[in-house]
Amino acid sequence: HYITTPEGVKGKGNNFLNFLKFAKSHAATLKAALTVDADLRSITPEWVKYLGEPILKGYDYTLPLYSRHQFDGTITNHICYPLFYGLLGEHLRQPIGGEFSFSPALMNHWLKQKWDPQARQYGVDVFMALHAIFGNFKICETGLGAKIHKASAPKLGPMFTQVITTLFDLLLSRESSWMSIPVIKPKPKKRFGLQELGLPQELKIDMRELKDKLRKEYYPREKLLKRILSDYASSNLAKMFEHD
């Protein structure tokens, strides 16, 4: 089957919502469903097994584990993974990875939720992960090796806004769900797939350009950040910019 959104309707989340509705129309025979990002260059036939097998063994949501360059997965590394780990007590290394599988039960749960405009765009991955957690669904991870794909840098601006808006909107709306979580060191999830992930994708990074862009964004907002951050945080941030 070829599935697409209506003409003029764009957005990653809208495509997922369309896919979920299609899957629901086959609910009588559906045992598991999986999806991968369209820009992948490292996918192998084994990925279907690694993603699908856990669902057939009783899990509801399988998230990926792969080796990635330290500058790949910016939003995941700096915001999503730390918040999932520290705030929700969930040890999920790639909570917004584009490769995952799910059970019919979780599919129905997602379809019952309110899909805000940001969730219909790049906010969809964090939308799905948070609702799986708040719904107490059974989550695991699966090793897929290296993720080699088209760099996301050109679209990081709108992607950041959509992911972070969805993340904080859902966290605030479910504050009672995580405020009572005890302070613990989260344990890793049950792991399937590859145990050795291999070397990550090589990326050409211009460190000078990155630092120049960072300074260009930081200095016009330095006074604002000083008002928002603690003295300790703002002083250490300022010291960071003193180094070349």
TrEMBL record:
Gene3D superfamilies according to UniProt: Spore Coat Polysaccharide Biosynthesis Protein SpsA, Chain A (3.90.550.10)
Full protein name: Glycosyltransferase 2-like domain-containing protein
Organism: marine sediment metagenome
